[in-house]
């Protein structure tokens, strides 16, 4: 068995490669390296081009004897997607379309999609079940809804078996600090808070801005559901097992820790992990942020036998801190 991992040089993809290897599953990486890093996929065959080039992807699938795809390659910065919706649509939907065409040509019948909680938009029910209406509040979420739709179409037309894994807030790193998130532009709370703590913030621009403390939540800051990247990666391997047992079937599954953690609680965890204060100031709300996002995770447990094992916030932040220290973002 060999799996094509698109976006395998990215944050979550690089952990998926290692989870596959731990199960003895060979992988080939397809990544355009627009945001990923060659070194994150070191040790795996790497093809550097877009998923949208269906001829080339089909040839690669045939050459490498691919029998399943895990598709993570995508643009994923919500704010950018609002500014550049066409680029997001072209890259994300166009990429998935090329990949599906290639699957059809090469006879690949199993597909795992990296999807997102952004497909739900403002929740009308908490914790959010997979049956919640799909109503994204940004073009990034729109692209993922569209890709899930196209998977359902490919299931009807070609008998494709697929699983869409809707991640909540992916975070954390390899506990020894050897691998973690390394985005060209960092927008996520945990790495930004760790960097603010590491550098002492102040006048050098690394002070963290908390996006609102007047939300209808217990401490006034937003609640999010953080899920450790090692837990996420493991779920992809379980999804392949599920597809093996359900030819032509489909599964949509939330992946989250199942608990809400506030921005203030994250800052407390950063303080404890680093032994340093987190220089921060209160700012206005960020447009498009829901007050609370928490996953219902019972389907992942029932269908995949998956439970988060390392997703408590203390662990997540400690591991992310090991990574930030090792890559030199922390002062000695
Ligand atoms: N957040 C914040 N300051 C920052 C970045 C994020 O207060 O500089 C908040 C954000 O409003 C949200 C939470 O932290 O409530 C997690 O945001 P992140 O961007 O990490 O992930 P998202 O939930 O947007 O996917």
Summarize the structure.
By secondary structure, this protein is of the alpha/beta class. It is built from ten helices and 13 strands. It folds into two domains: 2-168 and 226-255, Rossmann fold (3-Layer(aba) Sandwich); 171-224 and 258-296 and 304-327, UDP-galactose 4-epimerase, domain 1 (Alpha-Beta Complex), CATH 3.90.25.
Could you walk me through the main structural features you see in this protein, from its secondary elements to its overall organization?
Helix content is 40%, strand content 16%. It is an alpha/beta fold and 332 residues long. It folds into 2 domains: 2-168 and 226-255, NAD(P)-binding Rossmann-like Domain (Rossmann fold, 3-Layer(aba) Sandwich); 171-224 and 258-296 and 304-327, Alpha-Beta Complex (UDP-galactose 4-epimerase, domain 1). Helix 1 packs across helix 7 (229-245), helix 2 packs across helix 4 (85-106) and helix 6 packs across helix 8 (263-274). The radius of gyration is 19 Å and the shape is globular. The model has no long low-confidence stretch (mean pLDDT 96). The structure holds uridine-5'-diphosphate.
